[in-house]
Each structure stands twice: as C-alpha cells, then as structure tokens.
Design a protein that fits this description.
By secondary structure, the protein is an all-alpha fold. The protein contains 3 helices and no strands.
C-alpha cells in the first residue's frame, strides 16, 4: 500500500496524525529539559552573576550628585543677583 494511491482525506489524516505525534514528543522533551534546568538552577549563584552594584557605592554617587546640585543652585542664585544688579544700572 503506497500513500500516493490513498485518497486525499486519508493522506490528510496520516499527515495530521504524524504532526500531532511529533508535537507531543517535542512537548514532553521540552518539559523534561525545563524540569532539569529548574532543578539545576542555583539562585545564589544567579544573583552573584547579575553583579548588582553595592548599595554603599550608589549612596556615595547620590551624595555626590546632591552636592553638585547644591553648588549649581548657589551659582544660579549668584547669577540672578548679578543680573538684578546689572539690570538696575
């Protein structure tokens, strides 16, 4: 019996049964691989590999930015005062 000699409906049935069988096999294979990866997952090592910056370093950076902001505000006030004096003349 050759597939070529079968009717179109029977060919379609054979095709879809084959596709379904392959899909089921791949789904279970994928599920097994995901399960193995979850079992091998090490949360502490993962967090170390992310290499988050230390909070202390970030705090120093924010403090430095705050200092620069204060300096800029002082300079702006000085410039405003100079402008007021110049415009009054």
């Amino acid at each position: 019996m050759k597939i070529q000699n079968l009717s179109l409906n029977k060919k379609k049935i054979i095709f879809w049964v084959t596709v379904l069988a392959v899909a089921i096999f791949l789904f279970f294979w994928w599920g097994k691989n995901i399960q193995e990866r979850i079992e091998q997952f090490n949360a502490s090592q993962f967090l170390e590999e992310l290499n988050f910056p230390q909070i202390k370093e970030e705090k120093e950076t924010f403090n430095a930015i705050g200092d620069k902001k204060g300096q800029l505000e002082e300079q702006i006030q000085e410039l405003e005062q100079v402008l007021e004096k110049e415009t009054k003349k």
